[in-house]
User: Fold this.
Amino acid sequence: MKPHWPTVSVATWTALLALLAAWLLTWAPPAWAGDPAPADRATALLRAQAAVVGVQVLALEDARSSRTLGQARQGSGVVIGDDGLVLTIGYLVLEADRVQLQLDDGRTVPARVLGVDVATGFGLVQALAPLRLEPVPLARSGTLANDAALMVVSGGEDGAASLAQLASRRAFSGYWEYHLDQALFTVPARRDHSGAGLFNDQGELLGIGSLLVADALGNGDEAATAGTGRRSGNMFVPVDLLSPILAELRSAGTTQASQRAWLGIHCVETAGGLRVLRVNDDSPADVAGLMPGDRILGIDGQPVRALVSLWKALWAGGAPEREVQLQIQRDDGPQTLKVYSVDRMKTLQRAAGI
Assistant:
C-alpha cells in the first residue's frame, strides 16, 4: 500500500532536494557503489521529514520541573510506531498535564505521555487520534564516521530541515544529575533542538535532540570552553539506547534504571574541582544545607573531581533512598554533610489517569 504523507509544499521539496544535492557533493563517487538511487534517497528523506511533529506541552500547575523548564513548553518528536507512538526528549513532557502534536498538514492531535526515562532522557508520547504518518525506521549509530553527513529535522509551525555533520561521539555528563556513556554531537548548532530528529542519508532515525553545547568537537569541558571560540553544536541521545528499554517504558511508564538516587543539585567541573551551581528548592540537598558555591570533594568517602564520578558513585552506592555523605569545601573549611537521597521518579508528578 502506498504510504500516506501530508501535502508537501514547494518550499519543503526545494529544501529537501537542496539537502540531497549537498549530500551528493560531499561524497566521492566510489562511496555510491551499491547505494540507493538519488530518487530513493529523496523519498526516504521526505518520509523522515514528514514523521517529525511539533510537541506542545502544558505541565501540571504545581510541577516541580516548571521552575527550570517553564510550564508551557514546545519542541519536536518523531513518529516511530504505526499506532501513533512518538519519541521525544523527556524534559519536554516531564510532569505534563496536556500534550498536543502539531502536524505539517495543519492538524493538531491530542496525545498523552506514555513514559519518561530519566536515565537516557527519552520520552514516549501516544497520539490519541490517527496521525496517518509513516513511522521512520531506527538506525544504529555505531557504524557512523565522525564526518558523516546527516539531517536534522524539527517539527511544528517553525519546523525546519538542515544538513548537519557528526562532530564527535563520546560520553556526556550533565550538570543536573545525568550521564550518558555515549552521545552524538553535531555541527552546526540548531536552537530548535529539543526533541528534533537526527537522520542518516537513508532517512533512518539516529538520535533525538537534547541540548545546545559550547564544544561539539569534544576538545574540552563545557564550563571551560563556553565563549572561547570552540565550535558550538548539539547533543543528541542515540536511539541505540531505546531498543533495550522500549517495552518496559511503554508498559511501566519508566525503567528500572530511572529509579535511582537524586539529590537535587546542579554542578559544574572547574579547575578547582566540582562546584555547586544551584540547589533545587526543598530537595534533599537543600534540606541538608548544601549551598551554591560549595565545592564537592567526595561522596561516601570516595574522592570525586568529575561529574561522571559523582553521578555514578551516587547511583551505584546503594538504594535510591538512603543516607549519603558529601564531603565539601566551604569558605570556613571542609565539612561533611549528611544528605538523605530520594528516588528521582517519586519526585515527579503525573497527570490524573496516566
Summary: The longest strand covers residues 161-174. The chain has a mean pLDDT of 87. The radius of gyration is 21 Å.
